[in-house]
Amino acid sequence: MPRGMSSASISIRPPAASTSPPWKSRHCPCAPTDSSHRQPSPDKRGAGGMSERLWDIPPTWEWSRIGELGNVVSGGTPPTKVSKYWEGDIIWFAPSDLTGYKRKFIERGAKTLTKVGLAKSSAKLMPAGSVMFSSRAPVGYTAINTKPSATNQGFKSIVPHDGLFNEYLYYYLQAAKQIAEQRATGTTFKELSGSAFGALPVPLAPTCEQRRIVEKIEALFAEIDKGVESLQAAKSTLDLYRKSLLKSAFEGRLTADWRSRNPDKLEDPETLFARIRKEREASYQTALADWEQSVTKWKENGEKGKKPAKPKKMKHETMQPLLSLFNVPLPSSWLAAKVVTVLDIVSGATPKGINSCNGKGIPFFKISDMNAKGNEIELSQASLNLSANEAQALGLVVCPAGTIVFPKRGGAILTNKKRRLCQPSCFDLNTMGLVNQTKTVLQKFAYYWMLGVDLSAIYDGSNVPQINNKNVEPLCFPICSPDEQAQIVRILDARFEALEVLQTEINATFARAEALRQSILKRAFSGKLVPQDPNDEPATVLLERIKAERTVTSRKPATRKHKAAHR
């Protein structure tokens, strides 16, 4: 366990609430010079009865709707194959630009439009300060643009009216994500329509209180962010310690004292290597005999279906030079061997017709199954299962339990995931496997060795990352006596178990931090985060002013130029 680290040292605590009058803070342009205005009476709130009231709010607040507080703007995308529509001066956002984006303000997206491209789409140019809200794939990404920009159809945005602080709306939309998701519709993916977005209820605070609320939210969030930074540092420390532990184990340093106390349990490495080769050869001969019986049975059945695949002869060598993973000489009782001379390397396959199989008994794992709950270490839950006959008919290789599976192509390589099969299984073309056919090499020892291999350091550097046999075959696999392997596994099991406890506590604290943020937002938009100032102009007055301004704007005749600009 890393020195000085314990689960008790990882915590996130809600900061103490401020006792100073919050209305004396910054940004209060609407504060009246006297208290001549009156509080609205409870029976006057919710004029017209049109706005939903989802929870109780202070008397100076008012329930409203998104569409009453600003202009709702949808987006669009011009034809992607017309080059003259793209790479212009108009900033354009897609929901993918907000994937993983945590900041409040955003300056630009990955793509831009030309003026012609904007005119050839349903996208609209919004002023800086507009609040963007992703309405599909997924619902709920929120950001404020810092420059005039447009979006694709995956957004519903709002250009706030005067008196509505855009940052207040930004935080409210974050708090209301679940409400928006519940109102989204669709089968393939959920989408929030423009009308549904415009109808989202909003608890509207007086303008000055909006600013005080935002100021308080950000002060509290800043305290949480400090705790999260400590958690991130602790998580990074665990990752570094895990890597250091594996490196020490497979350089022989972790069991140096054990070797000095147990010289009688060490074996000559060349003898070990010869035994491994003999065991692999025996395993191959057994597989060959089984194949011959399967072919005989296949012929007796009239050669129906695909002929059983002949097992591949094990590979004893590769022309690739040894690729050492260690920077120090191995112990004298160890041998550095190429992994291809110790383990079988198997590539997965996705034959045509695989998705129509509905048998049972043999799991077929796709690369995405590595992310499924319960598959974090061992692959046990497959999205597809086959019968033995289906696997044979498709020519699939069934790998034994204990096979180490890892990504073969695509971005999944960079996740560096490795899993073990918990039962005989097949896997798709995006994965590879290492199969141990010997008793001299312990399964768990081989698995821990593979955990120490950085996949991002061995893949082919093409546009699409890919790992081929030639990238794996020369990797240095350290061979030591089975007794020493067992000792290494015992030490790593104990250390990794302790690390897992810390990792679980860190993850739980991350979850508590997010729950605390949601609690702060909940208090903020129910009027309980900051006190109300009796001198604030009530939200009803603000709504009446917005309504009057909208009425005046709607009565103005549109000019030809205005129409052309919004076609």
Structural description of this entry:
The structure is a single chain. The protein is α+β, with helices and mostly antiparallel strands and 567 residues long. The chain folds into three domains: 1-44 and 215-265 and 482-567, no CATH class; 62-204, DNA methylase specificity domains (Adenine-n6-DNA-methyltransferase TaqI, Chain A, domain 2, Alpha-Beta Complex); 267-480, Adenine-n6-DNA-methyltransferase TaqI, Chain A, domain 2 (Alpha-Beta Complex). Helix content is 35%, strand content 14%. The protein has helices at residues 66-69, 115-119, 166-175, 177-183, 194-198, 207-250, 256-261, 269-300, 388-393, 443-451, 469-472, 482-524, 539-555, 560-565; strands spanning 62-65, 70-74, 86-93, 105-106, 111-113, 131-135, 139-145, 149-151, 155-160, 201-204, 335-338, 344-347, 362-365, 378-379, 384-386, 404-407, 419-421, 426-427, 431-435, 476-479. The strands form six sheets. A five-stranded mixed sheet has the order 2-9-6-7-4. The N and C termini lie far apart (64 Å).
